[in-house]
Write a structure and sequence with these properties.
single chain, alpha+beta, 11-stranded mixed β-sheet, 8-stranded antiparallel β-sheet, globular, binds guanosine-5'-triphosphate, binds magnesium ion
């Protein structure tokens, strides 16, 4: 075996918000990637609009820095469980991982998920305990918890021998011991060079490159990104595309890129270990291998966990359809969804047929909500239905996805939270009271039972609770789970909402929309406090015979509407309800609009 001593490839993995993208900032700055006076945004790798708005990473991205004549390829991954597919596919690019753990929160569910994937892939870990500046940091304990986690995950002796570093990513400081006086990130770079194995390859082996990411460029078309595992690839070279169905196609490399900081730069050739992008391959897909046309050897395909949740996307047939969006036809929606399935390994799309729309399957509500949000920003208009879990049948038994849920909340709310989880079929597996006034509990719960839980949990714990969950396994169908216990308030005719009507109807429940909004028959305008649906005339005008003139006084009695976020709307809707998504708004509606056809 030969080695590339001038190269290291590593991924940064962690639970949500433990500081991955912030640490990459520090590595970019301190490796001299930016000019001193260059204006660079914080968390620069979070380059997608939605990532900046929500402060989370959605897509894994790679960058490269130079340190002491060594190129270090760094892959920043998302920490949220719904984007776990991103982590699984990018682990194919690297030989080592930086496992980041928050010095106060310690390992959390997604830490476990990503570490399990990394250990299974045989990658070499480096532990970085981050946020040591936090006043509630408990570094020693957290370190013990991480050892326990490694043991629990059956780490090998070698993997258990991981180096430990301590960091304040925000200040760009990394230390070998808690009390050394390092003021830079250098100890981290040194440890990476020492610990992460350099890429290995066989001299003279024919080309093999695994495609793990697709990108698109208006000029050069589809771009395949991945790691050269064996052999060399050069501009103009004829290569073989090993397709997923086992067939081959000969193609030519018309553009080749490498990475330097945040830029993609044109290169002439690449060698084993390099992370590169290849353009000029029209139909290339993730998981395919680019190989030598004489000896086309496909690499093992990328395996990711199956989707657990699906939603039906369909053409908007509401009375206000086509007013706010540009792309409204089934054909456009299909194209867009298929493109998503192509580039996103954790999304599946299936056509229902007969205009019934498309079943879009993913890892969770957030992942699907992000897709909906992206499409609406691209001027799409469509309907989505209630999320449903994907069940399986084994030996005649129906199985459903079961998640591991971790809840952390003040002691006083433990009763309320466990009571809420009962009917949702949550089973408590573990409970620790750190003695700090907060309690941490672990449950096993069907994915179904989690729909709508987050909102209720935050209300119950007055916003102080923290919860995390991720898919664990398929288990026997747990039985009925009640969804929403309330009915909907539904507009019984088209028109504009009046303050007069809202004032008289508001004792019935909570409204989602304000006076002046346009409504149509069958549109959901609020939540009934009772179990059944209620059709209401929300457009009623004050009778002219009523002599008292409308005054500002009338407005004072209106309770402000409860504006649902997209995620809340997804949690709220029942089976016979849909969300109408447009670039300007989302409206809730009954699937059957006419009141007399609904009963
Ligand atoms: N106090 C403190 N805060 C930090 C530190 N590192 C990061 N943060 C903060 O933690 C928050 C999350 O940081 P990110 O870098 O976005 O975390 P992430 O792991 O990339 O998050 P996801 O990609 O969404 O999983 C931000 O508000 C950071 O400013 C640190 O060392 N100390
Ligand atoms: Mg991030």
């Amino acid at each position: 075996m030969e080695i590339r001593s001038d190269l290291r490839n590593l991924a940064i993995i962690a639970h949500v918000d433990h500081g991955k993208t912030t640490l990459v900032d520090a590595m970019l700055w301190q490796s001299g990637t930016f000019r001193d006076n260059q204006e660079v945004q914080e968390r620069v790798m979070d380059s997608i609009d939605l990532e900046r708005e929500r402060g989370i990473t959605i897509m894994a991205k790679n960058t490269a820095v130079r340190y002491q004549d060594v190129t270090i390829n760094i892959v920043d991954t998302p920490g949220h469980a719904d984007f776990g597919g991103e982590v699984e596919r990018t682990l194919k690019l690297v030989d080592g991982v930086l496992l980041l753990v928050d010095a106060s929160e310690g390992p959390l569910p997604q830490t476990r998920f990503v570490l399990r994937k990394a250990l299974d892939a045989g990658l070499t870990p480096i532990l970085v305990i981050n946020k040591i500046d936090r006043s509630d940091a408990r570094v020693e304990e957290v370190l013990d918890e991480v050892y326990d986690l490694f043991i629990d995950l059956d780490a090998t002796e070698e993997q258990l021998d991981f180096p430990v570093l301590y960091a304040n990513a925000r200040e760009g400081i990394c230390k070998v011991t808690l009390d050394d006086d390092s003021t830079t990130i250098e100890p981290l770079f040194d440890e990476i060079l020492r610990t992460v194995p350099p890429p290995q390859y066989e001299a003279g082996h024919p080309l093999q490159m695994l495609v793990t990411t697709l990108d698109y460029d208006d000029y050069v078309g589809r771009i395949a990104i991945g790691r050269v595992v064996q052999g060399e690839i050069a501009l103009g070279q004829r290569i073989a595309r090993c397709k997923l169905d086992g067939t081959f196609e000969n193609v030519k490399v018309t553009k080749l890129y490498g990475y330097q900081g945040l830029e993609r730069i044109e290169i002439e050739s690449a060698r084993p270990g390099d992370i590169i992008a290849v353009a000029g391959l029209d139909e290339i897909a993730i998981g395919e291998t680019l190989a030598d046309p004489e000896t086309p050897l496909a690499l093992p395909p990328i395996r990711v966990d199956e989707p657990t949740l699906s939603m039906v996307f369909s053409v908007n047939d509401s009375p206000m359809a086509g007013r706010e969006g540009k792309h409204v036809t089934s054909r456009r929606i299909r194209e867009r969804l298929l493109r998503e399935a192509l580039t996103n390994v954790a999304i599946r799309v299936e056509e229902v047929g007969d205009g019934g729309g498309f079943v879009v399957a993913g890892r969770g509500e957030l992942q699907l909500a992000i897709l909906i949000e992206m499409m609406r920003r691209e001027d799409f208009e469509f309907l989505v239905g209630k999320p449903e879990v994907l069940t399986r049948k084994e030996n005649g038994q129906v199985l459903e996805p079961i998640e591991r849920l971790t809840v952390d909340c003040p002691e006083e709310f433990v009763g309320a939270v466990t009571q809420n989880l009962g009917p949702r079929r949550g089973r408590m597996m573990h409970m620790v009271n750190h003695g700090s006034g907060r309690v941490r509990m672990r449950f096993e719960i069907p994915s179904r039972g989690l729909i709508g839980f987050r909102t209720e949990f935050l209300t119950e714990t007055k916003g102080t609770g923290i919860m995390n969950h991720f898919f664990e396994t398929y288990g026997p169908w747990a039985g009925d789970i009640p969804h929403r216990l309330t009915g909907a308030l539904i507009a019984d005719r088209a028109g504009r909402v009046t303050a007069f009507a809202v004032e008289h109807l508001q004792p019935r429940g909570t409204f989602f929309i304000a006076p002046g909004s346009e409504v149509y028959e069958g549109m959901i305008v609020g939540e009934n406090s009772r179990m059944e649906d209620l059709d209401v005339n929300i457009t009623k005008e004050k009778k002219l015979t009523n002599m008292r003139a409308a005054s500002a006084d009338d407005m004072v009695h209106l309770v402000p509407p409860r504006r649902l976020s997209l995620e809340q709307a997804i949690e709220f809707i029942a089976e016979d309800e849909q969300i109408e998504v447009t670039p300007k708004a989302f409206r809730l509606r009954k699937r059957v609009l006419k009141a007399n056809q609904r009963k």
